[in-house]
Amino acid sequence: MSNRGRYTKEQIQRRRDAAARLWQEGYNPTQIREALGVTHASTVINDLDYMIPGREKNRRNKFKKAVPALVDWESAPAPVRGDDQVLRLMRSFIADVKALNFRNTVAHEIIAAESRGDTARISEIARLAHDLDSVSQAMLFIVADSQYREKMATTVAGRDDL
For residues 126 and 110, what is the distance between their CA atoms, to the nearest angstrom? Predict the structure, then answer.
């Protein structure tokens, strides 16, 4: 990693993604700083605050003892197959919502919206939850049903971008 100055938005996002992933894997900020090759721990703290608002900061006895492998966040990743992108997105999304303590967070969000009389916010949460459920159910159906899987792989019906 050689660029010690200005970083592109993409590089910063890759660094933030790596910091969040390492945090979720159980590494502490000092270990993450070493894995990312950054000079200041404050960079890691700022990245974690950006990526995981409200994270539990004092979990001293829960950190891994091993040092994580170095992460090259400055170089653009090699192109990946479409299926790798879907799996990466799914893993990242699941890790993100778990890290945010989503059940508790959503419950508090709805309670706060109710107290403000913000029915639009509650409706948005319900709509998004329904959309997530629809996507999840479709994926499970593709896994379970070979005929449906073949149809989704070979026909226009499987295309969301049309």
Answer: 10
